[in-house]
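Intended use. Records like the one below are meant for learning the mapping from a protein sequence to its folded structure. Do not use them to infer anything beyond what is encoded.
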Amino acid sequence: MVARPPVTVVIEPMRADDIPAVHDIERASFSAPWPTYAFRQELESNRLARYVVAREGDHVVGYGGLWLMVDEAHITTFAVAPASRRQGVGERMLLELLRISESVGAAVATLEVRVSNLPARRLYEKYGFRPVGVRPRYYTDNNEDALIMTTGELSSREMRGRIARLSAELFGSGVGATDTAADRRGGADQRSPGVPRGGEAVG
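Structure written out for the chain above:
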């Protein structure tokens, strides 16, 4: 098997004209996708939200977002296009979301992940997230529990050292270790668009 060349990916703020490509990834990643207007509403109306895309050349290959909730950054959604998984795209986006979290004044970052989603849990643990609780029957498609995962203090020496080390490893090699699919809040698809949902199609 011929090895793939390193992926050149740029993480940038999401724009309105990215929404069609983002929605294509959304539909490929989730059983109950957000409608396109939900993303537009988030970009145009939600001052608490920050959304990014992963861009490879002219193509959007991933996206993620967070809400700043007082002093906590809640990662609301996170997905990588199926063809671009296992190439470090999700790790690049996660690094940028953690950087944004600290820059907007969040003390910690948090998310929900399906208890059964071990690849995603391993990725989040690698970046300093630790289990802090469970939301029973959180996901409406199968009533699965959600594991709540939260980082340590983003400004701490431990977290900054971890992020610096992982960033050097990731960008030094050009390829990351884990690409999976993220988890989102179970009730989000049955409620108004823009309600936070945790992390599920990771890459």
